[in-house]
Structures are given as structure tokens and as C-alpha cells.
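Hi P.,

Sorry for the delay on this. The queue was packed all week, but I finally got your sequence through. Input first:
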Amino acid sequence: MPADQVTPNGYPGVLADLAARFGDARGAVIGTSGPFRVSQPEEDAFAALIGDWDPMHNDPAWRMAAGDGPIVLGFHVLARVEQGLRSCPVIAGLARTVHARTVGLDNVRFPAPFPVGALASAEISISGVSFNEAGLALTTKHRYCVDGASRPVMVAQLLTVVTARDGDDGGRQPGPFPLASSDTAPVLIRELPEGVPVPTSSRHDSAFYDALPRRIGQWLGTTPWTCISDREAHAFALLTGDDGTNGHGDLPSRAHPFLSRGVPPLQLLALRAYFSPLVGLPVLTDESMMAFNYGVDRARWHGAVHTGTRLRDHVQLLGVQARRPGDHLVTTRHILEAEGSDHGALVADCKTLYRTSS
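Then the structure:
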């Protein structure tokens, strides 16, 4: 694809070259990662960061019916996609001249469990290349597989906007935060209803989930405030293969080279596991139920968030689908509010599979 077919006036140099190279490679694999393993201590630390300390992820003595041991959290796998893209040879070779920012996710699914300690690898291919008012918009497909497994443990589409670093931007200055497309207008927080949480229950059995469809379309309330510290953001970055020097959201770095004042975008999304129980939707395994991260239909980030900023979630129930006996697929919308901002920093439609005991 010739660069002049995708490059508007004002985007010379490195972005035009990158557009041409990725355009020519559309549909092809542009990078691989691995092999890698997620150890039990790494999984424990990640689960603690997002409030998902669950036996199926953290107790080595726990066994599923199929005889498997603990499995890696879906969000732990998903959080690796940013670093996977940055490690692709073309992007890595331009690290000093371009900056890649995550702005969205589409069609994230976890088809098979990822056992803790299993050997895995990732394959990244280019799906789309275009320019918008913010910069070069890339859509990449990420496929993670465990050695010897017939199905991948994760497939996801990542939306990224690439901008030139200072000195090679053609005099153009992108907005305060780039959007991937025009259909991702941010949500105004003041327009969200208060909502009513799902009543607390001591037993999350089939009867509990059979009653949920009555709430479809309703808002389940707003969670209490919380925040992500510098140390938590740094730990998250290290656990997902990033040393934190990328400056998430282009926020100014502190003196320590490994610390950035921006919360990693995928860490904001992973907070869903912490927020969901606060509106009555459990995530932790109990005697009646196991909860699995089924995927993310769509997620869009609308701004960078400083560490230390107070955050809360506005949750809406979008759907409840009965699957095989005892299985309920629940879809929720999460609008993350960062204190001081008029619009949501993140809007994500997530799916959770609840499996109840007979």
C-alpha cells in the first residue's frame, strides 16, 4: 500500500514510512513473543493487585473437575498485549521516534484455560492501518497459545494510535488523548443514573442467576472510590512485561526511570474484577459458583489517568444468557470515572461466565 494513499497532509516522515510498511504487511504476522510462563508467585501478585484472590487462580491445591490445577487470570494474559506490540521488530526499531498508545480493544475471548506454569507464546498480526486526526491508527490481532493445546488461550484485537515523538510530527500536535475512531465519543458522567446494586446473597446458585434477567438494561449502581498508587502501577507493569518506561498516556515521568505517573490502560480495565462484587456480581469461587472471564466485547479509553487519582465504576447490566445447564453468561458495561473529569476514562463491555454447581 503506497504511503500516499493513507497519509494526509501534515504527517510526513516516520509515520508515513510506518504506514507503508504496515500496509504492505496487512494480514501478516508482524511479531511473536515467548515462550514464556506465568508462575504461581506472579499470578498471586497480579490477582492481589486487581482484587481477584480466587482458589482457581491462587491455591495450588485446588483442582477443577477436569483435574487441572490453578489457571492464569484472563486479564493477566490480556495485559501483555501492549508490550507484545511494542516488542514487534518494526515498532521496537522506532522506539525513539514514535509512541504507541492503547485506545481500544475488540472481540477479546478466552477459548481455553491457561494453566499456571504452562509454556505459552503469542503471535501478533496486522489487521488495519489508517490515519485519523490523532495519528496512525493500527488494529492488531493477538493470539496466545499454550504448547500442545488445540485451542488458543486468548484472542484479542488491540486498537493503537501511533504518534511521532517531538521533532518528527510535522508541526502537528495531537489532542490531549487520541481516539481510535469517531464512534467512540466519551460518556458524560453527569448523565449516568445512580442505579441499584444486586441484593447481597449468601448463595450464588442457579436461582441467583436465573433472577438476574429481570435487571437487564438497568444500572447496578456506582462503586465506592479507590485509587492506584505509583507502586501498584509499577508492579502491574513489571508483571506484564513492561518496565514502566513507556510513560502510559504520555504523562510526565518521575525521577525514577521505571516509574510513570500514568496508570497502565489494561490495569484500569482489570479493575472490573474488584468493582463487580461491589454492585452485587461476585467474582470469587464459592461452594455454589465459579466465575470465568469470558471476554471483552469492546473497550475504549478516553484519557490518561494519573496514579493517585480516585476512581469509581458505574455498572450497567446488558445481558444474561443461559448456556448449558448451570452456566450463565453475563454481560456488563463498565464506565470508569476518574475524579475531576467530566467524562468516563474507560467504557468497557465485559462478559463473565458463571458456572454453578448442581
